[in-house]
Write a sequence for this structure.
């Protein structure tokens, strides 16, 4: 039973997990979908009353019947490295690869449909609230008057992107910014804004959830600092305990979203309350592991190498 | 309780359903996501311990608490009609709109995540087979030798696209074509091919499934005709009965895929067996209704106007 890792060639985080799988002696195939077709060969057979299929990568043949789990880490676009790439070739290759993988009875970290759904931040806030997290008051609106009222009610408000940074900028290029009631909200009519009450915090929390295993790390904040991801606070990440309420909420969140892996960001306020800021199904964990020594890569490898099959075989996603 | 129809302005099929909803006196809002922001205003509020939101379209205000169902018919790209459209504005607007709709407790025809999954043709074949349909032997491969062997085994084979027609061509521009063992398969190494045993047919079948209601129509084939969608056969669509085995299989397929609506294409062979060719979650029904008089638009309207809530409120998709 083999683990399939879908990721680009340069991926240090994947390397960490690959090393752990090697230590455990778990067979593993690593594929960048960009290399298909070309370095990799695929065949799926719906011919003899049942389904079978295989992937061949660098001489390793992976049969769909022998597929233990799929880790969708940081895959390239299918057929991106083809001699004559085209949107249509990408679409056909994506269909061929993922259509075959979806047909297999395997465990996913994370299933692409689950991941895609979980990327919707408004839905995420709704699920977080239902799961029992404390969620800062938030609105998403194209109505300037509604934005104005929100800022008047909550005073200190941050504006965020709902979909991530604008294209062409670095992923980390859009820090969360603080606005006040004097701001000009007329531009909101031209594009939706996500506004959230600013939580004055004494620490940032990063919690990594892998199945039922949780790893939490805490970094003390500099007073008045808005976005802990930017700039040096003079503090490092340290291991911290997970409050019971948070552990239950993470469990419900993962069950509800169907995710096997998620990295959560919280703001810890002066009373010690952890406020839910974001659940990132593809969040990094390498920097936390390096700073705290928490065995996150090993836990990912353990999850991927389990033989426990999915109860739902292929549908329902 | 209001029905929301997401579709472009020009959509005759939607017009048919809108007329039926009017007849039933069911409140309805029609929105092209391309008109958001602009003609439409959106606000979602995650502020007061629970979720609320509204859409305002042409003076009609639709509250998320009063949302009965969503019909994802043929929506334009979010923000496509904006004064300054951009991929980022589209991404933000999609997040705002669908994130809000996913947060509501509503019924979907079809939920975008379910629809996206169901578009994967290889997975579709697998689900069709599991559901009890007769599925023609099929392979999807980038290995020329495997393709050659398949054609030698099944003799008459058709090649199809897995993802749909190539871009820039008309949607109907890629007819299914017949190939023989003498063909050159070397090009398959550069791009995956979907090969399927050719089923000599005496008729095409189009079956429309809406919840538990099925409408089947039959069009007699011209001997030797490969693709019934192209050219005039001299025969029209006529109402036909649904065999029990097919009704059970459609039920299982819809439950398994989570689709509320799907249009199925079958080839009826000389023995009367219906061979599953395709299940299209967004398939047209207007032409069938016009030729056969089957009340499909009315059934869609009925499904959308039911007050029965989803058992799963927002998650699991």
């Amino acid at each position: 039973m083999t683990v399939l890792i879908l990721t680009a060639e340069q991926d240090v985080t994947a390397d960490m997990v690959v090393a752990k799988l090697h230590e455990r002696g778990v067979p593993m195939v690593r594929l960048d979908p960009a290399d298909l077709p070309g370095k990799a060969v695929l065949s799926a057979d719906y011919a003899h009353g049942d389904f079978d299929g295989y992937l061949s990568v660098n001489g390793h043949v992976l049969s769909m019947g022998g597929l233990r789990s799929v880790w969708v880490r940081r895959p390239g676009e299918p057929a991106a490295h083809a001699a004559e790439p085209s949107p249509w070739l990408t679409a056909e290759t994506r269909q061929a690869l993922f259509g075959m993988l979806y047909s297999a009875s395997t465990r996913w970290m994370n299933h692409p449909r689950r991941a895609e759904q979980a990327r919707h931040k408004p839905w995420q806030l709704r699920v977080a609230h239902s799961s029992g997290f404390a969620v800062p008051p938030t609105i998403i609106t194209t109505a300037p008057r509604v934005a104005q009222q929100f800022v008047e009610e909550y005073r200190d408000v941050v504006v965020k992107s709902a979909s991530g940074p604008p294209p062409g900028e670095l992923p980390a290029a859009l820090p969360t910014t603080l606005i006040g009631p004097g701001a000009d909200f007329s531009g909101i009519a031209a594009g939706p804004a996500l506004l959230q009450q600013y939580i004055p915090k004494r620490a940032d929390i990063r919690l990594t959830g892998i199945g039922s295993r949780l790893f939490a790390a805490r970094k003390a904040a500099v007073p008045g600092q808005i976005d802990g991801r930017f700039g040096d606070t003079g503090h490092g990440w340290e291991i911290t305990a997970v409050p019971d309420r948070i552990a239950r909420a993470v469990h419900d969140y993962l069950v509800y979203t169907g995710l096997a892996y998620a990295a959560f960001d919280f703001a810890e306020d002066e009373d010690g309350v952890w406020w839910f800021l974001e659940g990132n199904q593809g969040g990094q964990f390498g920097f936390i592991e390096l700073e705290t020594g928490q065995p996150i890569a090993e836990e990912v490898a353990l999850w991927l190498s389990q033989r426990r099959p999915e109860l739902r075989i292929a549908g329902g996603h």
